[in-house]
Amino acid sequence: MTDPDPVRVVPRELLEELAATGAPAAPPPPATPARTESGEYRSRLLVDRWLAARGVGFRVKAEPDARGRTVYVLAACPFDPAHADPDACVMQAPDGRLSAQCFHNSCAGRGWQQFKDRIGRPEPHHYDPPLCGPRARRPRPRHRPAPGPAASAPAVPSGTASTPDPAAPTGAPGETPATGGVPPGDGPPEPAAPPQPSGRRVIVVEPETTPVSATMRAVTDTLLGAGDCFRRADQLVRVTGSEVVPVLSAAELAGLLNHHAEVQFVSGESAAFRPLPTSYASTWLNHPGEGHRLPRIALFTHNPVYTPDWRLAAPGYDADSGIYNAGPAVEPCDTTEHLDRLLADFCFRTPGDRTNYVGVLLTALLVPRFIGSKPAVLFNGNQPGLGKSVLAQIVAILRDGRPTETGTYNPNDEEFEKRLGAIVRRGATTIIIDNAKGTGRNPRIDSACLERSITDPVLSFRLLGYSREIRAENSHIFCLTANTPDVSRDLVTRSVVVGLYHEGDPATRAFTIPDPEGYAEEHRVELLGELVGMVERWRAAGSPAAAVCSRFNKKGWGPTVGGILQVAGYPDFLANAAAAAAELDDTRREFAALVAAMADQPQGTWTCAELAGLADANRLFPAKGPEESPRGRATRIGMLAGRYVGERFPVTEARTAVFERTTDRKGNVYRVALEDTGA
Q1: For the segment 141-162, what is each residue's pLDDT rounded down to a tens digit?
Q2: What domains appear along the chain, each with residue ranges and CATH number?
């Protein structure tokens, strides 16, 4: 064994010169798109914000689908508008991934990318957090952040909503904003993560120690701070632009809250951001106190309306009256130039029918005074093609700024209620039941649901797929269009009849305005200004009331609207009521035949039992099955007779009969008094 040679000592300069001749250091690995620990991208598309910005109508299903995806059901397929709700939808998985589908064969093969291109690609601000620059994804930190509250969010008291300090560093949890999560000295700095949206609130919940009531208050504080959340008919609603959207389910509330704030759950040494759990959201939706902290919307409207103290509500929210006017500013006009031109070509049956229609348009301005105390409108024509549906859509355009979807009458009242509820939920305030007609088994148009919807102060419909009801103040105008229909008496007495009549082929008629609906949309502000001008001239004349008889007079609807029309030069408001009732009410038609039969008999007075016998002889008012006894039938005829006491019925072209009631030793007896009409 030999000893090694001694190591020669060299100066440091020589070592540095040797190191400089070596291979260059390898570059650091490139940065990759950032994901959370669960593999999700940090920027999530806010589908509701994107669809609303693109003008796409939609609704959110109450519960996720079998894969846990949130389903946004589109009002119409972007490729074919005939594919309406619920045929097309956009779906978002819990990790943010998106898919889309239309269930019609003609749209097969069109998925999320095609839907996105057709609707319009999302902008950076449609994501949360908003995308920064051309990159759609954020850089990943090289070191996994340490768990604990310090790595998740600024510390705030439990159960409170807070806004992060603007001076504090921003970025994703656990990142160092200046270096993207890479400690100084470990390599070149990566691009900084986009900051959290300015002013975003954080609700911190410690389930073990935070009272549920404190979390409920924090949720309400967040909704109040958002400025777009209100209470309407004791339900949470959100106003987005010109639309009001009810929030009925726990999933919808969780999505709305996440739109405005983050919810952080803290447990021991760990903390995590999560959507508001269903149990918390359901508790808030059913809380008797928190919802009442929100400002109340007494009336939501797209057209100018008069407050109960006769102020013309300005656009926006009027706290004194609770009216939210999402429509344009309107100034009163001194003429009715546009209104006269619009209505000139319609073949109203009488001048009174035209006056009734203008009265309906005026009612839209006076709705706050007549919630639940205004009639429906029955457009009755002697044949198709006279413009009944067009007149109904003009009402919708002046009220809501656009034509509305129409519903179909269904004699099954339960199904009919679902249809009405769906239309109300989508925000329409003009409900059009187009081309209403009965069926073979149910020839009469008769709906208890529709009748109560006309007169109830609050509309309430059970919605399919929801455990809650859709509710709204009854500012709605219900329109029915039909051709010489058979309508129940209760529906006739709840309606203003606008009759149209034309002899010959209506297709040969010429119109000075080829597109009346387009004209109404183009000149909507002017038309509303002319209606406001009519109200202002009536007020300047001392607000005279008209002597008008109507079942809706308890709040003064008939005298008020009739007075405005009289000052404007239309004295024949509701002048067609009796004739329309005689034509449309089949019960009244049968009773008129019974009165005519009484006039042909020499007998002077009739008891109820004798009237029942006369009805049998003329095959009127058939018995309600074999179980109806003669006494029960006489009682039913007597109740009908009491309804028509004092009314006049035509017997011949020259004579009318007044149906009268007197009392003798037999009780109530009835007779007819004949009068010459001079015809």
Answers
A1: 333 344 343 333 344 445 555 5
A2: 44-135 (no CATH), 201-293 (no CATH), 337-579 (3.40.50.300), 585-676 (1.10.10)
